[in-house]
Amino acid sequence: MAATPVMQLPVISECAAEGCAYNHDHMCHAAAITVGDLDSPVCDTFMGADLEGGEPSTTGRVGACKMADCRHNSGLECHAPAITVGFEHEQVDCLTYAQK
Question: Which of 89, 17, 82, 96 lies closest to 53, judged by CA?
């Protein structure tokens, strides 16, 4: 399978992790996030800090996904049209995750 061009990576349509350095007005501004820690669809890129990260003109995208059991995952890359990030079980997760 060929690599997905950056502009075709899934968009993060909304992020509810207000305490993240990359979140501004419920939008992620990290160039690309990584999802998953093999056990749960946690946002590995979450950075709880008083710093402002990312580029304000950039819409965050999913660069890699370690959740091989997600129906949107192929070759450890997300192929969902878009994802939502938010809190589940007191951690910041990909809420679009859907187990196969």
Answer: 17
